[in-house]
Amino acid sequence: MTTLAPTPVHGGRLRNAAGDLSTMVGRSFRLTRRDPDELIMALVLPTSILVLFVYVFGGAISIGVDYITYATPGVILLCAGYGASNTAIAICQDMTSGAMDRFRSLPIVSATAVGGHIVVSVLKNLVTTAVVLAVAVAIGFRPSADPLEWLGAIGMVVAYVTAITCVAALIGVTVRSPAAAGGFGFVMLFLPYVSSAFVPPETMPTWMRGFAEHQPITPVIETLRGLLVGLGTDGQPVTDLGSTAALALGWCALISSVFAGAAAWVFNRRRYS
């Protein structure tokens, strides 16, 4: 088998990277349109989870406020995890089907093929978030956020989705089959359960409580809940989200940079193997 030699990346190529990324974003959108089942599941699953938590579990859980008010931010992050798992599968399919080899033979920055998947994942998750919020409002969710708080909540969702999509990108370029990528990706679906997403951490066993209180998703949840409905982890009103929001954004930035860098390193290692 002929091994492709690395193509030098000069300043002109770097300036064209934005154009290459735009092309790959368009390609990822076209792939999404050709797979309507994934698109349907991305819309149906979030609303099903929301209805399940509100009408099946909500009546048995006492938080001090309507359970839909407490749980909706957590459902948003669950849906983002599902979207990230699909991204890991899509990237792995490109890695194993020969598509990446074809991209590397073209005069483009080949890493933008992975970047295209990441951008489209973020955009699809924003659409899913809007659907979840619309359904939540229809069944009783009443956010109290002003325009600035809505802007902050959207920014928090974007930061979180970008972070877990970078994790998914690393999974996609590392594993050897789409099935394995889906399996690893779905692990991210379970992390919000062991956080303050659906119950206060103080209700958990002591050995689990420490993890729930200090894992990265908890400050993201608390920031979203505080911005949208002005409530804290215990369901009581909060007045200062500064430190919590800073911690949430710090976690997202750290995860994004570490996993994006690791994905690029693994991608290049597999590139010439």
From TrEMBL:
Pfam families from the UniProt entry: ABC2_membrane
Its record classes its membrane topology as:
Multi-pass membrane protein
Highest taxon, organism lineage? Bacteria
Record keywords, A-Z? Antibiotic resistance, Cell membrane, Membrane, Transmembrane, Transmembrane helix, Transport
Query: Matching InterPro entries, A to Z?
Result: ABC2_TM, ABC2_TM_bact-type, ABC_2_transport, Nod_factor_ABC_transporter
Per UniProt, subcellular location reads as: Cell membrane; Membrane
Chief location of this protein? membrane
Segments passing through the bilayer: 39-61, 67-92, 113-139, 151-173, 180-199, 245-267
List residues of the ABC transmembrane type-2 domain: 37-270
Check the record and name the PROSITE patterns matching this protein.
Answer: ABC_TM2 (PS51012)
Answer whether the UniProt record assigns the keyword Lyase to this protein.
no
> Family, per the entry?
Belongs to the ABC-2 integral membrane protein family.
Q: Tell me the protein's name.
A: Transport permease protein
What organism does the UniProt record list as the source?
Gordonia sesuvii
Q: What is the lineage of its organism?
A: Bacteria, Bacillati, Actinomycetota, Actinomycetes, Mycobacteriales
